[in-house]
From TrEMBL:
The keyword Cell cycle does not apply. Belongs to the bacterial solute-binding protein 8 family. This is Fe3+-hydroxamate ABC transporter substrate-binding protein. Keywords: Signal. Residues 1-22 form the signal peptide. Residues 67-335 form the Fe/B12 periplasmic-binding domain. It comes from Paenibacillus sambharensis. PANTHER family: IRON(III) DICITRATE-BINDING PROTEIN, VITAMIN B12-BINDING PROTEIN. Pfam families: Peripla_BP_2.
């Protein structure tokens, strides 16, 4: 009996010691809130798995992707800004010209398609990861569903800030940090975000004392009825630049409105989005000659801002776009 008790006591001591050691190692949670990343090693750039919550999915990355494909320009430019071109085996779907700062890096990456590649072309590149700006990339007409790709061992990430109403700059930063975690380049992601924050703060400091924000109308397209920015990223950037989007109360990303509504809200600035088959010159000529707009302040004073489509997306160009908008709205603040 004494021997039995002695053995049981020793077993209990060993079990308690093991539990204490295990508790001491649990410094990092297995996962964080939606849209955040957790590295289970507790070390930036560690070799342990990274868990990401993305668009309602929990994704575990046992290692950094080595054969990534980027889809949509703002996703591609985030990858390049993080110095990940050597981890990319393909890219697709530019809106316009790649940012000049990243042209040399972009030239190293094979272009799979002008728009979304077919599933055959995509799979032919033997990717292990797909990163898309828009969820349309994961439709049956494009790459296929994220679930289907996962079944073939291909992880994926959808830019969350591009697929929500009312995205903020903080939402973009979260996406950048998630990509940094997935590829184990957390320090690069933190530096990129810090640089972007500093540029935005420099602009904000110049326009912070504006009492009455300039009224801004974003003209995307449409002659019979205008298609404009509502609660999308353009709204956020206009606000950060010290302006006010005249259709910011509409609870959707882009919206079709009426010219009567535009006239009633009398914008002081018109932002023309440069993309599509209609040129900027054609869009501007239409606006200048449309009879109903002749008494609108922006038309009378010829106050237009032209932005490429890439400048409107939830990516690394945000601070540049904020500065461009602010300089046109309040040139006296930047003299």
């Amino acid at each position: 009996m004494k021997e039995y008790r002695r053995v049981m006591l020793m077993a209990l001591i060993i079990m308690l010691a093991g539990m204490a050691a295990a508790c001491g190692q649990q410094e990092v949670p297995a996962s964080l809130t939606v849209g955040t990343a957790a590295n289970q090693s507790g070390n930036a750039g560690g070799s342990e798995s990274v868990i990401i919550e993305n668009s309602g999915r929990t994704i575990t990355f046992e290692e950094a992707p080595k054969r990534a494909v980027s889809l949509n320009q703002h996703a591609t430019e985030i990858m390049l800004a993080l110095g990940l071109e050597d981890s990319m085996i393909g890219t697709a779907y530019l809106d316009d010209q790649i940012h000049p700062k990243y042209q040399a890096a972009y030239d190293k990456v094979p272009v799979l398609s002008d728009q979304y590649p077919s599933q055959e072309v995509f799979l032919g590149a033997e990717p292990d990861f797909a990163y898309a700006g828009w969820k349309s990339a994961f439709s049956d007409k494009a790459l296929g569903s994220t679930e289907h790709l996962e079944s073939m061992g291909i992880k994926s990430y959808i830019q969350e800030s591009s697929n929500m109403n009312g995205p903020t700059m903080e939402d973009v930063f979260r996406d950048i940090k998630n990509i940094g975690s997935i590829f184990r380049v957390e320090e690069r992601a933190e530096k990129l975000v810090a640089d972007m924050e500093a540029k935005i703060e420099a602009v904000h400091a110049k326009v912070a004392d504006i009492e009455t924000p300039a009224r801004v109308f974003v003209y995307d397209s449409g002659e019979k009825e205008p298609f404009t920015a509502a609660q999308n990223f353009m709204n956020e950037m206009i606000t950060l630049a010290g302006g006010s989007n005249i259709f910011n109360e509409i609870n959707k990303g882009w919206a079709t409105v009426t010219w009567e509504e535009v006239v009633n809200r009398n914008p002081e600035i018109i932002v023309i989005v440069d993309y599509g088959d209609t040129t900027v010159e054609q869009k501007k000529e239409f606006l200048q000659n449309y009879a109903a707009l002749q008494d609108v302040t922006a038309i009378k004073e010829q106050r237009f801002i032209v932005l490429p489509l890439s400048a409107c997306a939830e990516g690394i160009r945000g601070p540049e776009t904020v500065e461009t908008l602010a300089k046109h709205m309040y040139p006296e603040k930047f003299e």
